[in-house]
């Protein structure tokens, strides 16, 4: 007898709970980031504030630390800081989602927490033949979800398009429902638009944005929202070729800023801008909270990279929640949400001082730290300066955050960060300011760097030895003035 959805959920839940025993206290387990209790996760899904609580779902394979038939894992929080694991929300296995419940979004509909997701069905693994359907599940209590009898609600991609047709993001405007989906036609990526009056019957409204070649072969995880009178299409294009120091990751995450007309359904936009210039940010999804903030969360990993935590029966995590705003240059900035200050415990403050060569900080060390530091550029004689974090005693292991004064460029170098991938990522820092501000969030296997109020953001997984905890400041070929530095040890929310 085939198992029904509730039985499949119970089985998946049991598997992940058993696996979690092996995972506890393993070296790279994060202290304040969203993770599954064990095994694999990727894209954030269904991010929403519902009934006064924040819900985040994610792509989850509960049976192993590598990807497999996707389920939806689930955490919730009252404050965006302390997360609680809830039972797995969706399990694949119905006719229309046999091979996976792929990414999607959440809305509040008539008081029900309503999930939209892509049902993935593999017909022939060898030939890579599959179909993708759009589906709905809903819950009255925000914990247990029932798939709608009308599933699937969209059964075929637009005419002439490939079967790559996924990741529904749904929102309401002017009494109607709208959905954007990642799609592909003639091996070019695009985002398509649908409209509905009842969430079940959807009408195709055309192409919102598309690649003409240089923007890659598939657009994943689209998110379309309004911010300060502009419309933003946030999406993850696959197949963009690297250009100079841009598009260095296997796949990208970025946005178009533009103007959208609900009458004509046309979106006129500027050029594509990468959202996070680090190694590990993908499939970013946003929601509007009750305080009026647009908050985004991304998958803190990258496809096809080494994941040393897999040896310890888990893989993948989500970024800290970030508030999205326009910066002074008319681009998007991301900054850590205010509530993260609740993680702070012991504080260390450094007096203003000249930094030259290397200065190891005696009173600051750890694998869960927040560091906020400002340096003066006005009388700086150094060529480069910055931080070495997660340094070993002998200095051989370290992650470098370097500012190049002449090129006005920040670099994150993880070639000596321990296990896992090496590599270097660079980002131009806009503006001609007299000082520069660095805001670092370090966790046991991650670094999130926010420069100048999040005008530049770089997210990186690192896997240093747990004993590599020292912090250094440095300047080369001259000196730089440290104006101020505050640092805090951060709580472990999972303890």
- The amount of helix comes to under 10%
Give the full name of the CATH homologous superfamily of the largest domain: Glycosyl hydrolase domain, family 43
* Number of E-type strands: 33
Count of DSSP H/I helices: 1
* Biggest β-sheet strands, sense, barrel: 11 strands, antiparallel
The number of domains is 2
Q: Give the amount of beta strand, in percent.
A: over 45%
Q: Which shape, going by the Cα principal axes?
A: globular
What oligomeric state best describes the polypeptide chains here?
single chain
The structure class reads: mainly beta
In the CATH scheme, the class of the largest domain would be: Mainly Beta
Q: CATH fold name of the largest domain, please?
A: Tachylectin-2, Chain A
Mean of pLDDT: 97
In whole angstroms, the N-to-C terminal distance is 41 Å
Low-confidence stretches: none
CATH architecture verdict of the largest domain? 5 Propeller
CA gyration radius, whole angstroms: 23 Å
Key descriptive features of the protein:
single chain; 495 residues; mainly beta; Tachylectin-2, Chain A; Jelly Rolls; 2 domains; 11-stranded antiparallel sheet; 5-stranded mixed sheet; 33 strands; 52% strand; globular
Question: Summarize this, please?
Answer:
The chain is 4% helix and 52% strand. With 495 residues, the chain is mostly beta strands.
Can you describe what's shown?
The protein has one helix and 33 strands. 47% of the residues are buried. It has 495 residues and is mainly beta. The radius of gyration is 23 Å and the shape is globular. 4% of the residues lie in helices and 52% in strands. The model has no long low-confidence stretch (mean pLDDT 97). It starts with a helix and ends in a 5-residue tail after the last strand. It has two domains: 5-19 and 27-339, Glycosyl hydrolase domain, family 43 (Tachylectin-2, Chain A, 5 Propeller); 344-490, Exo-inulinase, domain 1 (Jelly Rolls), CATH 2.60.120.560. Strands 23, 24, 25, 26, 27, 28, 29, 30, 31, 32 and 33 form an eleven-stranded antiparallel β-sheet that branches. The longest helix has 19 residues, at 5-23.
């Amino acid at each position: 007898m085939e198992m029904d959805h509730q039985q499949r959920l119970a089985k998946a839940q049991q598997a992940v709970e058993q696996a979690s025993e092996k995972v506890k206290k393993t070296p790279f387990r994060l202290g304040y980031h969203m993770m599954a209790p064990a095994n694999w996760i990727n894209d954030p899904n269904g991010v929403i504030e519902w009934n006064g609580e924040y819900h985040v779902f994610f792509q989850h394979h509960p049976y192993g630390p590598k990807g497999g038939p996707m389920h939806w894992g689930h955490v919730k929080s009252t404050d965006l800081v302390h997360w609680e694991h809830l039972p797995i929300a969706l399990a694949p296995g119905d006719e229309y989602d046999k091979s996976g419940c792929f990414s999607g979004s959440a809305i509040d509909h008539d008081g029900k927490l309503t999930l939209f997701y892509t049902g993935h069905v593999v017909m022939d693994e060898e030939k890579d033949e599959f179909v993708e359907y759009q589906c709905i599940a809903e819950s009255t209590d925000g914990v247990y979800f029932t798939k709608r009898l009308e599933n699937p609600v969209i059964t075929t991609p637009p005419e002439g398009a490939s079967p790559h047709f996924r990741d529904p993001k749904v929102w309401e405007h002017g009494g109607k429902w709208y959905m954007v989906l990642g799609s592909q036609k003639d091996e070019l990526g695009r985002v398509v638009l649908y409209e509905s009056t009842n969430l079940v019957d959807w009408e195709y409204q055309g192409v919102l944005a598309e690649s003409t070649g240089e923007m890659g072969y598939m657009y994943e995880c689209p998110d379309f929202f309004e911010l300060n009178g502009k419309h933003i299409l946030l999406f993850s294009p696959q197949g963009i070729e690297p250009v100079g120091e841009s598009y260095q990751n296997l796949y990208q995450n970025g946005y178009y800023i533009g103007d959208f007309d609900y009458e004509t359904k046309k979106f006129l936009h500027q050029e594509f801008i990468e959202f996070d210039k680090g190694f590990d940010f993908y499939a970013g999804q946003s929601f509007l909270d009750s305080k009026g903030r647009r908050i985004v969360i991304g998958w803190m990993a990258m496809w096809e990279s080494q994941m040393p935590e897999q040896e310890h029966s888990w893989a993948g995590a989500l970024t800290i929640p970030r508030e999205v705003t326009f910066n002074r240059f008319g681009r998007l900035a991301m900054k850590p949400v205010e509530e993260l200050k609740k993680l702070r415990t012991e504080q260390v403050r450094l007096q203003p001082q000249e930094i030259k060569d290397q200065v190891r900080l005696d009173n600051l060390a750890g694998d869960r730290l927040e560091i906020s530091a400002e340096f003066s550029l006005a009388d700086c004689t150094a060529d480069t300066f910055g931080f070495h974090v997660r340094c070993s005693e002998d200095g051989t292991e370290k992650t470098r955050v370097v500012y190049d004064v002449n090129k006005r460029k920040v670099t994150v170098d993880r070639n000596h960060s321990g296990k896992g991938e090496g590599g270097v990522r660079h980002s131009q820092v806009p503006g001609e300011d007299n000082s520069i501000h660095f805001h670092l969030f370090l966790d046991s296997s991650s670094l999130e760097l926010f420069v100048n109020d999040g005008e530049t953001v770089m997210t990186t997984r690192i896997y240093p030895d747990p004993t590599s905890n020292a912090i250094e400041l440095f300047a080369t070929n001259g000196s730089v003035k440290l104006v101020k530095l505050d640092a805090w040890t951060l709580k472990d929310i999972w303890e």
